[in-house]
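cron nightly-structures :: item 1 of 1
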Amino acid sequence: MRYSRAFIPTLRETPSEAQAISHQLMLRAGLIRPLAAGVYSFLPLGWRVMQKVMRVIREEMDAIGGQEFHFPALNPVEIWQQTGRVDTMGDVLFHIKNREGLLLAPTHEEVVAFHARQHIKSYKDLPQIWYQIQPKFRNEPRPRFGVLRGRQFTMKDSYSLDATWEGLDISYEKHAHAYRRIFQRCGLRFFVVGASSGAMGGSLSQEFMVESPAGEDTCAVCSQCDYAANAEVARSAVDPTPRMPDSQPLERFPTPGVRSIDDLVHRFALPEERCAKALLYIADGRPVMVLLRGNDELNEVKLQAVLGAISLRPASPEELRNYTGASAGSIGPVDLPTPMLIVADERLRDANELVSGANSDGYHYRHIDLQRDCRIDLYADVRTVQMGEPCPECKAPLRIVRAIEVGHIFKLGTKYSEALGAMFLDEHGRECPIIMGSYGIGVERIIAAFIEQNHDERGICWIPTIAPFHVHLVALALERDEAVRQTADTLYEQLGQAGIEVLYDDRNESAGVKFNDADLLGLPLQLIVGPRTVGSGLVEVKERRSDRRHYVAPEQVVETVQRLLAQLSEAGCEIAS
């Protein structure tokens, strides 16, 4: 491609609305342009990267026996109602107002189960792996960070259909292996975490994460072993609250103006570990009290999973007073005026000598014994893991990091097949629900995550596998030096004939403009042809990432470029692994 004929609208200044590095560089390098909040057009250079990434995905999915489909983005709302996800996904779904009964699909589990019901009749028809790469639509309330959180995005979603749970295990592991291959080939340094299945449902899920300040997920990662988990499910080996030898008589005492655990600790010289923070939540319309130790933070995703609730939210100030008779900071598990479920964090199991609110503003109880003075319906891990807490596997300190989710795999089980009647006859003639798995990859997220990890102060540093072009041919002083033009034209033709993708900067621009654009676009190799090098009978080959330079004769350029591209491709996979 000749630069003079290409549409590559680079920007010199960083757009003010772009916060993430990937967003800034994708705009500046002319990969994307915004159309609406959370909606982006991919320009020719960016679309070439998209196609490269999708090619890698297709090759790895085909390698595990996947068959590519193309399902409609418009879905009948009825099949989503049958699985209950119209309610669980809520406002994330785009409904078509002028065509009642249709919505824009954010994923396709329902559609897969619908078609499986039509055609899968026997265990002999299984297993199957179906996949597609297609635009998805989610009504994100706060689209941000460019393509990392958008309202329209491209996803590879695949689905396994099995007759047995052992078959699901095999399909799941095939996808896990394929995902590792995809992310390694795309040059990502990633880690795998246990995760919440959320509205998807199912028995097990894992996320593939790329550490980045632009990430919207929080993960706990061990500094020594392989333990890693999304904060939604992360555990640590923090010490429980020890039970004291004696329980003193329950005592109600005045605490005027106390609104927090810190107030209790500082004003009354109480140990933080003996304070039980009480929170009130509304789960599926019913009040639930949650107890946490000291300043531990509630993990709402854990609580929702423990309760099996479809909806969960903090109680309003009015609800707090109606259900407990007090305001925030003065509620507790003793003498609750309204019967309700009480859930305590595992860290407080059977603890005594605690302090908590008395359900009366300005008063607390001390010497609370959870075995003696109140009813705890359920102990569960509902707290959020904090930086430096011991790993649950090896006790080394945990790191809490921000990360970008680039892939997510789920063992769905029979949730969707049972809801939509996708059944088959087993070898004994019994009717059984198809056992499903679901596996997603965000294509744009791979690109953005790569840029987050592979850039410098000058621009992007691509690897050959997903670079829009392999070589940036920079010709200097074309308008006044015919020898430079002839050499550059010849190299352009020779490289193209060898199957090497070249962006040939044949513009009548200054050397500074051309070099700045070359570094911004970040193609793996730069081939520099100018009066000085041509006059000495050499061509300069520069590796963009390392700035390493090679000077070779024109007749050696093709062989040198092929060798360097192979080395850079191998190095990209090694870095990722």
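cron nightly-structures :: done
The chain is about 30% helix and 30% strand.
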